[in-house]
TrEMBL record:
InterPro entries linked: ERCC1-like_central_dom, ERCC1/RAD10/SWI10, Restrct_endonuc-II-like, RuvA_2-like
Pfam families: HHH_5, Rad10
GO CC entries: ERCC4-ERCC1 complex; nucleotide-excision repair factor 1 complex
Name listed for the protein in its UniProt record: DNA excision repair protein ERCC-1
Segments of this protein annotated with the region Disordered: 50-78
Organism of this sequence: Thamnidium elegans
Amino acid sequence: MSETPKKTLNIPSYEQVEELLANQSKQLPNLFRSKRALASESVLASAASTAPPVETPAANVPHNTLNTPLDSSSSNVRSNYKRASGNTILVKPTQQKNPILKHIHNIPWEPSDYIKADFVAGQTTGIVYLSLRYHRLYPTYIYDRLQELQHAYVCRILLVYVDTDAHHASLQEINRAAILSDFTLMLAWSLEEAGRYLESYRWLQNKTPDFIREKVQDEYLAKMTDCLTSIKSVNKTDVLTLLSTFGCLKNIVDAKTEALAMCPGFGEQKVKRLQQVWKQPFLANKKPKN
């Protein structure tokens, strides 16, 4: 007599029952909600699915650390301003093969796509370069360049490299064009000289003109020398002779012809010129009356 197999019952545990009820409650809709609430929830859900993602701003984070791409135009302006404000000579890309750059040793230079002149030496100085040989091949080139840059820079320089023997007629023509376009004409007779001009314009950009002004000392001898040497044929030695003999300018003016002729180095012609100056009227620039 065979035994019948026993059937086992899988009775779930308490935790499994709680988990099953929780899952069923999530899937079943809440029948006790109003239709208006269910409609508003469906509208919000559809709007959330179609709305673009909102990026949260990064607080207290520098702009350069964000992973957002920058505008190309703004970045170009920033880089251009940084390079123009540095202690460099900006070079137009068309002038990068110019042999003049080999003779610039004391100041760095770098190419720039944002300048109109051939070289920019500082914030306000634009330099146009021209070779006389190139001018003979393309005579209208320089007129177009000067017209293009007529109001572009405060200090406008036309640097001409004289690399031909017959240059008088060409220089007269270029000089006239520079004057009409308000350019300062600078002539370089070698590439080394042209390179020194570029370095000098960049180095003197922020310098005061005091060192090229005439230095007039406040001493009495210096003032007397500056005054009397303006008379023709009177030199510094003559000024010392007059002061040592007569003492002051008043006595020199009141001196007679015989007394002046007795001074060493004073002949008849020099004494005559000296006395003619005292007889001439002193002209003062009077202010016009309103």
